[in-house]
Amino acid sequence: MELHRIIRKNPSLYGNQLIQQVGLRWNQMLGTQKAEARLAFYKMLRGERLTPADLSHLIVGKDTLVELTDGRVVRFRDFDYTATKPVFLPVLRAMEDFLRAKHNTHRGAGQKSMYATEMKEAARAMALRFCGANPAQFGAAAVANTTDGVNKLARQLKEYLSDGIILVSAISHHSTQLPFRALYGNDRVKLIEINADGSLDLNHLRYLLKEHEGRVRLVCVESVSNVTGFINPLDRIIEMTAGSGAKLFVDHAQGAASMPIRMDDGIDFLAFSGHKLYATGGTGFLVGLKDMLNPRPGDYVPPVIGGGTVRGVTREIISWDFFPHNLEGGSPNPEGEVALATAMKLLLEADLSEIANIENIKAAHTLTALKKELGEQIEILGENDGFLLPRMGVITFNLYSEDGKKIPSISVGNILARAFGIGIRTGCFCAGPYMQSLLGMSEEKARRFVKQDGSCDATPHANRVSFSFTTSDEDLAYLISALKQTARDDLRERFLASNTSPSIRNFAELNNLPWI
């Protein structure tokens, strides 16, 4: 029986020797984290609702150590939350507990298989609840990651999209653009352009819907940009799309962890991944209209062909299963789905609206501090005449030297990592067209980066820091101080002149991590 259930049935046990013994593994997980983490843990054991503040203390790996190039050992400061988020301790515990009865789903008569199946279906139901999707209308298919979900959607809607136009946000991650461009061609996929400040140009969306009236089948946007953190006005996009008769797909990978959403309000398809939701890996869900994602009559073939996608097979006949099973070919990853469902439940209980508010405030304060402390030595991408749009915890920027020269993003990333123990992201963030626009780069100039053989010498680049409601104000202050030092020519040149790479094996040993 779960430990929290034991305590709720026997409150007198809390704090006694039995609980000390049963909770030993959790105490080991908590490691050297502060007393607040232990208090949040015991609060959860008593069955009390966890607040965002509680969850911020229940992050795995907060005490990770790194060695700097000068030999010092410091606590690692993670500012690459956009790429992947750490794991909540209750998520890790739930997955570990599930693995004790791990088995394949839907295919066995034993109790382990029955249990795994029940847990998988419970995770599916949690995904629908998390997205505000009515189970009578929507279904949820487990996918390997958001990219997998978009690819399956693009293939599953082949008949529906066969003679239509697809509108895709120019802000979007490559994973949203490329499947449609590769399958249907650039002439059928039109990009919704951006405003001067980097936000989505809704007037251009309106223009495209009018220009291709009656032919637009699908509009693809993101809830939150992974480059600038901008929050798209989904209510207005839903209204415009519904009026055109087109269907709406939302890439919710970046917004899922801090932005409440309701598909019942007019979103037809949505995808997200667990690794951006404080779960363990890429495992995610594609949620969509069941009547459109079911097998189609005729020569239908599911995106992935294999076990689990069929109801029956003879030597001459294949009968495909209904959605979501027709999109779940092969052995599933139920432990990943259980981990994701646990994370979704925790976030819902802690109130996503409150989480979004905390993150918005942190982003606004950090932007203000960066502008104040670095002045003309920092260029924020996604800023128009000093006006900063509302965003989640993502800030992309370029640093400039004291004589006004742009500091290569790779240099900024290396210095922050090796001199300060800070992890950020550099490059184009899998959003090349968006970065080209933000940096004022013409298509002609951008083409020079890509050679005829498909290789690429360079891409538009910048630095990205990202954080969440779990990031402390002290960590944000540490980041700003480190950026100020990185922008100083004397400190930067001295570091680059003596640059050495810390041993990753030492990193593993410092943190008692496996080394294969």
Question: How would you characterize the overall build of this protein?
Answer:
- By secondary structure, the chain is α/β, with parallel strands linked by helices.
- Helix content is 41%, strand content 15%.
- The protein contains 21 helices and 19 strands.
- The chain has helices at 3-9, 17-22, 24-30, 35-45, 52-57, 89-99, 111-130, 146-156, 158-161, 174-184, 202-211, 234-244, 290-293, 334-350, 352-374, 409-420, 432-438, 443-447, 473-486, 489-497, 504-510; strands at residues 65-67, 73-75, 77-78, 138-143, 165-169, 189-192, 216-222, 247-251, 269-273, 284-289, 310-313, 318-320, 378-380, 383-384, 387-388, 394-399, 422-423, 425-427, 462-466.
- The strands form six sheets. Strands 4-10-9-8-7-5-6 form a seven-stranded mixed β-sheet, sandwiched between helices. Strands 13-16-19-18 form a four-stranded antiparallel β-sheet, covered by helices on one side. The chain has a two-stranded antiparallel sheet with strand order 1-2.
- Helix 6 (89-99) packs antiparallel against helix 14, helix 11 runs parallel beside helix 12 (234-244) and helix 15 runs parallel beside helix 19 (473-486).
